[in-house]
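We both want to read discrete structure tokens more fluently, so let's practise on a single case. Would you write everything just below, so we can both look at the same thing?
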Amino acid sequence: MMWLLYAIIGLVIVASLLYFLGNYTFWLPFRSSKLPRVVMLHQVTPHSDASGMNMPPEKFEQLLRLLVSKQSIFCFVSELEQYREQSNVVALSFDDGFMDNYIYAYPLLKKYKAKATIYLATQIEGIEKLSHVQIHEMASSGLVEFGAHTQHHVNLLKLDDETAYQEMQQSKHDVEALVGKCPSFAYPFGRFNEKHQQMVREIGFKNAVSTRKKIEPYNPEHPFNIPRVSTHGAMNALQMRIALAKGRYKL
């Protein structure tokens, strides 16, 4: 029966190894510091569990401290092209426009002098949204730039072309009416195709971010499918470092 015991031990070891390799992707190719890190975030609140949608304030501050310790250059997503020759460039990006971005993230952005881009789904329902007063204050600070995320946070692949175009165009107009400009776009749910990329160009956005979990050079010839660094509110310090080095910390 010893063979059965050895087999069970072997399976446990293999399973543990696979779990570790799946949750710590240090084995992925290292990405040069000359490539920008566009970090994807959503909520920053202590009132929800840490998740792929929510990075609690203490964890977000840990991320900012790590980036500052690396002498990161913070920029808006719309500024990526002008920072192409720089190393350690970071563009923090928040999707949807949660009010907690103002209450908990904004004070930390000011504390660490870090820029961020917030993509507003201007008529999204079911969340506590940023108010117009809060948006104006953040935009006036010089630390926050606002982009568009469609009006109703819709899956563009489920819409006809005309409706998809209107969702993108009207969200741009909404943001411009609030803060005077709207240079960048984020695809809701990361769902889009080449036709939507062309729409984004025609509408007049400078660039657009996706949910692809990668780190790539910024390509000014094709700026409408920018990948982002994957984050999770429960990341530990090692996983945070791996994500910033590789683009994702887990499979």
In short: The mean pLDDT is 95. The longest strand covers residues 89-96. The first helix runs from residue 2 to 23. DSSP finds seven helices and eight strands in the chain.
